[in-house]
Design a protein that fits this description.
- With 152 residues, the protein is mainly α.
- The chain has a domain of 97 residues: Arc Repressor Mutant, subunit A, CATH 1.10.10.
- Helix content is 39%, strand content 7%.
- The protein contains six helices and two strands; from the N terminus they run ααααββαα.
- Strand 1 and strand 2 form a beta hairpin.
- The protein is globular and about 60 Å long.
- The relative contact order is 0.09.
Length: 152
């Protein structure tokens, strides 16, 4: 978790510098699943207290989580996703869907992300052009910072 981005012009590198380690991604996943308290994260993840404390502090410092007084009162505090943290939803869903496709054997059981209203599995994330055309990796390229935009 560097203080300075690996590649200051690459959004992927900057994102990985913030949330790219295993524990941070799993903390964010659990926060989307409603986990809020230190003890709940620790129980869910089986993570050492010192590592969890470091990751939670980092995610608060970078604005992905915020600390609030416990919802039920008491001396505990809750860790809650900020708007910035909630914007990681597509990333977590993409990781989940990739994992479903590539890390389980056919027929092997796994958790499934479902719509609350219908209890149906969430459709596969797909990125499209404004006219609805599905975008694939071979359809795009990265325009580097020093590269001029190509005329249409």
């Amino acid at each position: 978790m560097n203080a300075r981005p690996t590649d200051s012009t690459c959004p992927v590198a900057r994102t990985v510098d913030i949330v790219g380690d295993r524990w941070s991604l799993l903390i964010i996943r659990d926060a989307f699943d409603g986990v809020r308290r230190f003890s709940q994260f620790q129980r869910s993840l089986g993570i050492a207290k010192n590592i969890l404390a470091t990751r939670l502090r980092h995610l608060v410092d970078v604005g992905v989580l915020r600390v609030e007084p416990a919802s039920g009162g008491g001396s505990y505090q809750d860790y809650v996703l900020t708007d910035k943290g909630k914007d990681l939803f597509d990333l977590i869903v993409s990781l989940r869907q990739w994992g479903q496709d590539h890390t389980f054997t056919p027929g092997e059981q796994h958790s499934v992300l479902v719509d609350v209203a219908t209890d149906q599995p969430v459709p596969r994330l797909r990125y499209t052009t404004p006219d609805g055309t599905h975008i694939q990796a071979h359809d795009i390229r990265v325009r580097k910072v020093n590269e001029a935009a190509q005329p249409l």
